Amino acid sequence: MIIRDYNHRDETGWVRCRALAFLQTAYFDNVLTKKEHYQNPSIELVAEHDGQIVGLIDVEYAEEQTVCSRGEGLGGMIWHIAVHPDFYRQGIGQQLLVAAENRAKKLGLNRLEAWTRNDLWVQKWYKRMQFNIVDSYYHVYFEEDELHPNYKSSIPDLYLVNTFAHYVGKNIEQFKDNKRIYECVCFEKFIFLPLNNS
């Protein structure tokens, strides 16, 4: 297996790897049909085994809070990290992260940030990789039978059937009857701390 830079010829393999990996998580319906491209500089790596993309990581980076939701200086957002299910438990995710961190350090990034839902195995992995939980909010899905009469569109003749929403309040219990509620958790890892000259 090799870890290398992503190139445009990898797109089909990248999409397949991500789709199969995400099927195992609370993001199972977050399907992409093509690879995302970023407005800011990025670190985009793939793990390849016998010509097959078996892992990937994309980190977009920028100053201040352009890409990251917190912090100061040059920070990177991990938009995608995934390992093909047939290649789980071989350390591929960790190798991709380490390779991305090494690139990030050379570029002068001081931290990485990643958001994930409440899949405990995913959260445990981030904790093992020395990330800390720093924030959270909720993803709430409303199916037709869960939509309260007060949840209406202000657009004439547009009726809500299924809805996805971000809830940043504290009273999540009001949605306890919804079938799909996920806590979306922010993990942060400082990879380089500038020397304090004081």
From TrEMBL:
TM spans (from-to): none
SUPFAM superfamilies per UniProt: Acyl-CoA N-acyltransferases (Nat)
UniProt key word Signal: no
Keywords noted in UniProt: Transferase
A Pfam family the protein falls into: Acetyltransf_7
InterPro entries: Acyl_CoA_acyltransferase (IPR016181), GNAT_dom (IPR000182), MshD_Acetyltransferase (IPR050276)
Chaperone is among the record's keywords: no
UniProt-recorded name of the protein: GNAT family acetyltransferase
